[in-house]
Amino acid sequence: MSEHDLVIRSTRVVTPDGVRPATVVVDRGRISAVEPHESGVRGAREVDLGTKALLPGLVDTHVHVNEPGRTHWEGFASATRAAAAGGVTTIVDMPLNSLPPTVDADALRTKQKAATGQCWVDVGFWGGAIPGNLADLAALHVQGVYGFKCFLSPSGVEEFPHLSLDEVRQVMTRLAGLDALLVVHAEDPQLLTEPEGPSYGQFLDSRPGRSERRAVEQVIELARQTGARTHILHVSSAECLEPLEAAQRSGVRITAETCPHYLTLEAELVPEGQTAFKCCPPIRDSANRDRLWEGLARGVLSCVVSDHSPSTADLKVPDFSKAWGGIASLQLGLTAIWTEASRRGHTLSDVVRWMAEAPAALGEISGKGAIKPGNDADLVAFDPEADHLVDAGALHHKNPVTPYHGRRLRGVVETTWLRGGEIGSEPYGMFLKKVST
Questions:
Q1: With 70 as the cut, is the pLDDT of residue 437 above it?
Q2: Which ranges of 60-104 does DSSP label H, i.e. alpha helix?
Q3: In sequence order, which ranges of 126-199 are alpha helices (DSSP H)?
């Protein structure tokens, strides 16, 4: 009987067909077979997880790494180490908050050069769509970005301006010709106001749910007219679910995501002055959170991704009208979601679908997101019954700022494998590229 590179057994392997006892066989970095649990297959390395779960490595398509230029906020070494510790084996880096932003092919090369040799997991890249770079989109597409991000409202950084609706139409028309994906931060700037004071309630009032809904409706109509494949980022308002569901049923090529903080935190319990909870769009009330879970269960929202947008602690001043808006949670997304999902009766298969399969499908990231023969052997040993107390200072994030500090979360990531190798001694992540057709 031939010996394989790696064999992992578990009574709870999360496969596309459900959770079952199985033996996962790995050769040359890929899953070569998924055998019965008692198959007796042998490997040069063997791991028996017993009743602990084996998941596919998660895919997080919404991560702000910030290097180069704002590496003191977060860099590729710290972000990807945090990802690995949280069971994430693939990230796709957002085009803004780095300097230069990834809005042309030269900027992409600059970012890749900065990241070389630092990545503990595999990394892909988004391009950016800003005023004036329409002519640069095709070259970025050829270079293998997974799509293009734009804002309908100010991004928070001057070097990445938002688009007007007419500019969005032009971008969509260009991307439809390339069959490239547009991902959109959807808030209507006409419905946003400056907070009237430092409290969380005043900040929340300044970014109402209807601003998201109106922007989503505008994007839907443009997607309908142009045929462009479009994705709505970080949906925080349940008001968006109705127009999204109607558009999806009518055949518009539009999908949407939400994030762990919108599904696990609630406005009523945001402590005053604790601006680690500030993000845009904002965390809303518990009734809204319940409706987001319903939208996720129905498939209106397909992905749960981090929108990891960290900053230095000094930018999180205790005033919600002035603090930087961004949640740091890359290392904690799996356990935060599992804590709430299991409480609501959802399964590990649900979590894997939302956090691995669907994000891989969104980006058309081949070989990722599922335990099946032919895929990369990106795997996670996960104890769903254990728990852990979050200590912000013990995370791999560069700055110890997270709204989950002091929370007890369910589930513990014990081991993460990238292409069959146990992550731990040195970074060997690869750059991923979208294959243009």
A1: no
A2: 76-85
A3: 137-142, 165-178
- Other Cβ atoms less than 10 A from the Cβ of 110: the count is 17
pLDDT, tens digit, for every residue of 124-146? 999 999 999 999 999 999 999 99
**pLDDT exceeds cutoff 90 at 435:** no
Q: Flag whether pLDDT at 317 surpasses 80.
A: yes
List 418's β-bridge partners, or say none: 421
Q: The domain spanning residue 99 has which CATH number?
A: 3.20.20.140
CA torsion angle for 237, 239, 244, 249 (degrees, to 10)?
Answer: 140
Q: Tell me the pLDDT of the chain averaged across its residues.
A: 97
Q: Where are the beta strands (DSSP E) in 176-291?
A: 181-185, 229-232, 254-258
Task: Answer whether residue 389 is part of any domain.
Answer: no
Containing 350, the helix (H) or strand (E) segment is helix 348-352
Predicted TM-score of the model (pTM)? 0.98
- Which residues form the domain of 192? 59-363
For residues 421 and 424, what is the distance between their CA atoms, to the nearest angstrom? 9
State the residue for tokens 């290392």: 331
d(CA 262, CA 294): 13
Give the tokens for residue 399.
């700055």
- Across the range 218-241, mean pLDDT stands at 98
